[in-house]
Amino acid sequence: MRTTTGIDPGPVMARPAGATAVDGFSVPGFDAVARLAARSLGVPLVSLVLNDGSAYWFTGGSGVPAHDPRPLHPLYLEMAHRLTAQVVLDTRHDERFRDVVLHPEAASAPVRFFASEPVFTLTGQQIGALCVMDAAPREELREAERAALRDAAALAGAGVVLRGYLGRTDPVTQLPHRNAFFEDLRAHLDGMPDVWVIAIDVAPVQRFNAFVRAMGHVYSDELLRAVAGRTQGWLPPDAHLYQVGAARFAAVLPGRHGQIDTARLDELVAQLRQPFDCLGIPLTLQPGVGLLKVAAAELRGGDPLRLVMSASHAAQQSVRGWAVYDRAQDERHRQEFFLVTELAAALTERTELDLYYQPRVDLDDGRCTGLEALARWQHPTLGLISPGHFIGLAERAGLMRALTQWALDHGLAQLAAWRRAGHDVALSLNVSSTDLGADLVSRLRSAGERHGVALDALELEFTEGTLMEHSETTRHHLEAIRQLGAGIAIDDFGTGYSNLAALRQMPATSLKIDQSFVRGMGASEHDAAIVRSVAELAHNLGFRVVVEGVETAHIYRNVLEMACDEAQGFHIARPLPAAEVPRWLAERPVLPTRRG
Ligand code: C2E
Ligand code: CA
Ligand code: CA
After folding, report:
1. How far apart (Å, rounded) are the C-alpha atoms in residues 79 and 478?
2. Which residues form the EAL domain (predicted)?
3. Is residue 407 included in any domain, yes or no?
């Protein structure tokens, strides 16, 4: 005989409101497990108490009320949280049992013998305890009896897990699972053109995992229950909450197929952003609430849960804390995710990535002073992906360090080969702000040694923004790089708002005027004036001035008249594959220079 007992929200464990939807579920096999325990230990009463507060009772025959109105004694909840077996041979010697009666039998019979064994899921999560009780005290609990109780507890754990699959409920929150969510969604869409679906992310996955690592499962379980409780309090009474991920809930908003009430959503976010008191530890979460309008037609073959989760994920980073699914943004994220994995693979296999080299010439005598290495990614199906696209991606995905290391090795190997072949050229490498740390110096030094090239043939290009970002420490690192002999260029100058005097504090050797001004020179007098005055100032401050983006003969002639030292651009040469560089060096067209 078995009943489930509804329990008042006690001080130890608050039961999420509305969990009544799943109260009807039993624990498969519990009767058999309990009978086994009752027989092996010779007790009249067995109980499975889960740490969410639900309890299942088995009595060896005496009448059990279908619903026991009394709240479960807190002692049972305490036992449900114990990680080890508890044995109390005679409760008379144990204060905690003072007013515990044989439950749910006649109130007059006190519990005199009590033993419990923790119940775990298959993954080792503690979810409650199996308790055996008797009205008579014991002298001892024999090893065979202890073993029987352990076996029964293990079987009970399997039963609870099984219930999770069958009834699709989560053992921790007792909320129904993803499959039940879809059934509910389908039912709502029956006869309705569309419905709103809501997803709630408790916290960013990494943060939540870090929390579990630091605090343990007892705390995270409690936290999940608390979040579920607040969310259920917010939901309309006829809506059910589902647990659709480790730290993620979802619900179908009944009857809300028109507009969504934004003020109500703000309210939910505000509630979830209030600190949670998790077993005495206040915790502030970073929740994300996502919304999606699902039409009946989209159910077939679609994945509404993934879509609404993409919205809740995006919402975590937003000020508002909630977001309606945005197809374009989702598409961008998917693309980005795909590209990041592909880029990571390209970086380890190193066959799709290549460096092209764009020459830079001296405006005095036309000699090629150096070549700028520019990364190229030839993707097998997407074709050529421009660095403008994948550099930012690498930056966001934490792949920049690997990319720079690859460019450094690849570029220096090529430079060494050209130098051995008698080409007296230098190499410029683009370096991003994430590279500008203390170890860049040692990485440079060892790469130089590995490839046998003196580092005075190398120049690193940092954007103006990077250089102005960190000032003092940056200057320190840059000075160390200069000590190695390598040059430093300020790239894309004019796109930031730094003044030249501030940049003068940086130990840079050259300054590259951004191509946006240079390319505009042909059409705009204004741009020409900017390039002229910047070049003059930079030159006077001691920088070698390089103009980028020299696309036409007209612009080339113009910069020849200015205080510029070098030029780079399509008019001189496009970025070239390494194999074409020696021929270009030997056969390049003659350009006018200051010396004729
Ligand atoms: P950047 O450093 O300013 O490089 C110059 C860009 O302008 C190159 O684009 C080059 O192909 C293009 N360019 C050169 N001359 C002309 C011209 O006359 N007209 C026009 N319209 N464009 C010209 P690319 O190769 O697409 O590279 C874009 C940016 O990606 C680079 O801008 C650089 O910031 C970044 N990048 C490229 N390779 C690497 C790399 O290995 N590491 C890092 N950190 N960044 C890189
Ligand atoms: Ca550059
Ligand atoms: Ca540039």
Report:
1. 62
2. 336-589
3. yes
143 & 182 share domain: no
Q: Are residues 126 and 233 in the same domain?
A: no
Residue 170 located in a structural domain: no
For residue 491, which amino acid is it? D
Q: Which of 358, 430, 516, 556 to mutate to test the pocket of ligand 1 (most atoms within 8 A of CB)?
A: 430
Name the catalytic one among 342, 464, 548, 566: 548
Q: Where are the beta strands (DSSP E) in 254-411?
A: 276-278, 281-283, 288-295, 322-324, 353-362, 368-379, 383-385
pLDDT tens sequence across 404-420: 999 999 999 999 999 99
Residues 6+ apart with CB under 8 A from 444: 408, 455, 458, 481, 484, 486
Establish whether 548 is a catalytic residue: yes
Contact indicator for 183, 244 with CB cutoff of 8 Å:
no
Cα–Cα distance for residue pair 35/46, rounded to 1 Å: 8
CA–CA separation, 385 and 375 (whole Å)? 10
In this structure, are residues 431 and 393 in contact, taking their beta carbons and an 8 Å threshold? Answer: no
Tell me how far the alpha carbon of residue 85 is from its chain's centroid. 38
- Closest by CA to 124, choosing from 162, 164, 158, is 158
Strand 458-463 to strand 426-430: parallel, antiparallel, or no bridges (unpaired)? parallel
In a shared domain, residues 161 and 217 = no
Structure confidence by residue, pLDDT tens digits, 386-409: 999 899 889 988 999 999 999 999
SS3 content of the chain, % helix, strand, coil (to 5): 45, 20, 35
User: For the chain, give me the number of helices (H) and strands (E)?
Assistant: 20, 23
Domain-located, residue 120: yes
- Listed in order, strand segments (DSSP E) in 364-449 are 368-379, 383-385, 426-430
Whether residue 184 is found in the same domain as residue 159: no
Rounded Cα distance, 94 and 155, in Å: 29
Looking at the domain assignment, is residue 4 inside a domain? no
Which of 379, 381, 356, 360 has its CA nearest to residue 369? 360
State the helix-helix crossing angle for 327-349 and 387-397, rounded to 10 degrees: 90
Question: Which residues line the pocket of ligand 1, CB cutoff 6 A?
Answer: 358, 374-375, 386-388, 391, 407, 430-432, 461, 491-492, 515, 549-551, 569-570, 575
Distance, in Å, from the CA atom of 490 to the CA atom of 511, rounded to the nearest integer, reads 5
pLDDT tens-digit readout, 63-118: 443 334 456 788 888 888 888 999 999 998 888 888 777 655 445 678 899 999 99
Which range marks the domain in which residue 445 is found? 355-376+395-587
